[in-house]
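queue> pop job 88
queue> type: inverse folding (structure -> sequence)
queue> payload:
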């Protein structure tokens, strides 16, 4: 029982960290394409990646070591929706990550490099889409926890 409680706690902490790093990305992108702190954005993106890994690992821990049997999860459509949405948010995050890395490389080569406004808007929209996906993730989790699905 203690293992399940500790895994749940660690899972929630990882989720909160993930939300914080994604929110921080959004705030950094608000600075505008000309005043963007690219180095900070890359560091925050790394934190986002690490926290997403922690969410995944603690979730797997809950799946295999938690109080509920594996069958509880694998036969639940809400669980599949939760995993699908998590993967979708992760896939959407690939483009912003690649852009942040490219912007950092260009800024290191040329300190006067200005990120194109259209690209900045597109990446900002993708980060917002990630935030929206993250906001919806608790719904299938709550349904799953109650055996709905």
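queue> result:
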């Amino acid at each position: 029982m203690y293992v399940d409680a500790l895994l749940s706690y660690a899972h929630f902490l990882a989720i909160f960290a993930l939300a914080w790093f994604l929110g921080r990305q959004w705030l950094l992108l608000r600075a505008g394409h000309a005043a963007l702190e690219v180095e900070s954005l890359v560091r925050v993106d790394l934190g986002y990646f690490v926290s997403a890994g922690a969410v995944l690992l603690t979730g797997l821990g809950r799946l295999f070591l938690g109080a509920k049997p594996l069958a509880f999860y694998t036969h639940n459509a809400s669980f599949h929706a939760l995993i699908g949405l998590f993967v979708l948010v992760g896939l959407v995050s690939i483009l912003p990550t690649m852009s942040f890395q490219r912007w950092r490389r260009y800024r290191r080569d040329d300190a006067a490099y200005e990120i194109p406004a259209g690209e900045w808007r597109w990446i900002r929209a993708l980060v917002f889409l990630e935030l929206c996906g993250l906001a919806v993730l608790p719904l299938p989790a709550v349904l799953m926890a109650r055996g709905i699905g």
